[in-house]
Design goal:
RecT family protein, RecT_fam, 57 residues, 3 helices, mainly alpha, DNA binding, 2 strands, two-stranded antiparallel sheet, 51% helix
Length: 57
């Protein structure tokens, strides 16, 4: 998992932005995988988790 680590994002002022992907990467990957499995198994089209919805809008 260490090789997948990404440096934290920073604001224009140089302050570090810590989000769930930096603080809990294994948990986030597990939840993303569960969401994708549910979509494939049950045909949930157009249903997004909060992280995906923010990137779409």
């Amino acid at each position: 998992m260490d090789e997948c680590r990404r440096e934290p994002f920073k604001t224009r002022e140089g302050k570090e932005i810590i989000g769930p992907w930096q603080s809990h990467p294994k948990r986030m990957l597990r939840h993303k995988a569960m969401i994708q499995c549910a979509r494939l198994a049950f045909g949930f089209a157009g249903i997004y988790d909060k992280d995906e919805a923010e990137r779409i809008v």
